[in-house]
Amino acid sequence: MLRKSIALALVAGSLLIAGCNTVSGAGKDLQSASKETKDAMNGK
Q1: What is the CA angle 33-16-25, rounded to 5?
Q2: Region Disordered: which residues (predicted)?
């Protein structure tokens, strides 16, 4: 029972870490796209 609980906690932790990295990366991509769009609109 204890092994299953530890394994479940490790899997859940791994998924949380991977999810945070994915959301963070998507946020950076959106910021970059927004900056490029603004620059293009301003003729830079």
Answers
A1: 15
A2: 25-44
Q: Residue 26 and residue 23: Cα distance in Å, rounded?
A: 5
- Percent of all residues in the chain with a pLDDT value above 90, rounded to a whole number: 0
The CA distance from 17 to 34, in Å, is: 26
Give the type of residue at 42: N
The span from the CA of 33 to the CA of 37, in Å, is 6
DSSP string, the chain: -HHHHHHHHHHHHHHHHHHHHHHHHHHHHHHHHHHHHHHHHTT-
| Overall pTM > 0.85 | no
Contacts (Cβ under 8 Å, ≥6 apart) of 33: none
